[in-house]
Task: structure prediction
Amino acid sequence: MDHGASERQSLAGGWIARWLRSAGEGGALSAIAFGTSLPESLRGAPSACAVQSLDELALTTRTGDGAGFAQALASLHADGGPAASALVPKGARDALALLDRVEELRRDAKSDGDAPASDLGHALSQVARLVKAGVGLRAATVDHGGFDTHYGQAVALPGNLTELGEALAAFDRALGADRDRVTTLCITEFGRRLIENSSFGTDHGRGSVALALGGGVRGGRVVCDWPGLAEDRLEDGLDLRVTTDYRDLLWETLSHRFGATDVSAVLPGHTPRAVGVF
Result:
């Protein structure tokens, strides 16, 4: 799913990365993942980084004197008039200005607002801060685990769903007037079986659910071709049948919200079908 592929495809790089390449040049913070590593969806992006906190977005040296290093670079690339300006790389000036803006964000303790005290809530609050700061962010990813409920599902699932709902609601509030230009997708790579296992949980299944939030979303609805739960309508008599290709939702998001026009550049081999979410 991170690759934007079908089961029969082997695609290098991620679907977000391919879209970013097709969309043209971006800035140093055009794509960011909040987590310990870069997700496959961003592999191959022109500019992408993975951080656990905005505190990690800083110049550092082996001696740890990041502040002094930044000051030295600023002095080196300072505008010394028309003659000197011709020698100053624009990328250096842009990067230093960006670091100054990120430093302002770190100092602005009020920006976290009413973010829930969870890893997910904290990550989304930082995404909202980057959006509102106008640093050139195009795409951000956040992973939220804990849904592989092979055992004790009745105990684990309600808390996980509450955490997700509260974090998304706080993210929407934090965006404020910027919410109309932000679209959030929540997708999962597997569903759950309909039948409980012997450990009071459910095993991996097929059909699942995706959530869409933000600008342009025709919300308040469940959009699906509901197959029903009768045994003869299930896949192998066990799983909710898949009726909507997740790539249809991805492409509808990119084309309706971000002006993408070449589906083959982003989702090779896929012919999209209208979902009607936007």
Q: What stands out?
A: The longest strand covers residues 31-34. The CA atoms of residues 178 and 271 lie 32 Å apart. The chain has a mean pLDDT of 85. The beta strands are 31-34, 49-51, 139-142, 183-186, 191-192, 204-205, 211-214.
